[in-house]
TrEMBL record:
Molecular function GO terms recorded: biotin transmembrane transporter activity
Taxonomic classification: Bacteria, Bacillati, Bacillota, Bacilli, Bacillales
Protein name, per record: Biotin transporter
Organism: Salimicrobium flavidum
GO cellular component, one term: plasma membrane
Keyword Membrane: yes
Keywords: Cell membrane, Membrane, Transmembrane, Transmembrane helix, Transport
Entry similarity comment: Belongs to the BioY family.
């Protein structure tokens, strides 16, 4: 990996940490809080993934989660440590890696970035894939049925759609402006 690619991966891991400074919004009926960090996943996929490739988008999430596992309090609300991977949020956290990869894969394949294409990519990776990992793990850890966990997750959908719109707008605006876009395709 080139040094500048490592810097970009680290930068998006830092963006995830910065988004973790925003306090979580706890819900009385679910132990999984609402956070802004899924916005960081979408930005990593749609900006970093579109420019350098999907593996770099997912590597930024791997780096971030390794820092969290090492005890850095980077998750929203100052949470960190290996214990967070044994909570109802664990599947969503692991889903960030796959979500960033899928968004990055779809964005990297775009010939030109339109808002509609970016919305579709962010919806696929930022909502569908993350929920695909998160809902079953939440169901298992909370010892509820899969349909009950899916119903609980509907609460997060309006906020996630707003994050998809914001990430897509930012990604389209940066698509041709970002410095590493100039002729670098891996």
């Amino acid at each position: 990996m080139k040094l500048n690619h490592l810097v970009y991966v680290s930068m998006f891991a830092a963006i995830m940490g910065a988004l973790g400074l925003m306090p979580p919004v706890p819900l009385g009926f679910s132990p999984v809080p609402i956070t802004l960090q899924t916005l960081g996943v979408m930005l990593a996929g749609s900006v970093l993934g579109a420019n350098l490739g999907p593996k770099y988008a997912s590597l930024s999430q791997v780096l971030f989660l390794l820092l969290v596992a090492a005890g850095a309090p980077l998750l929203s609300g100052g949470r960190g440590g290996v214990g967070v991977f044994f909570t109802p949020s664990a599947g969503f956290l692991i889903g960030w890696i796959a979500g960033a990869f899928v968004i990055g894969f779809l964005a990297y394949r775009m010939k030109n970035a339109s808002i509609w294409k970016m919305l579709a990519a962010n919806m696929a990776g930022g909502i569908f894939i993350i929920y695909l990992f998160g809902v079953p793990v939440q169901s298992m850890i909370m010892q509820i049925t899969l349909s009950e966990a899916a119903l609980l997750s509907l609460t997060y959908l309006p906020g996630d759609v707003i994050k998809v719109v914001v990430a897509s707008y930012v990604a389209v605006k940066l698509y041709n402006v970002v410095p590493f876009r100039k002729g670098v395709r891996i």
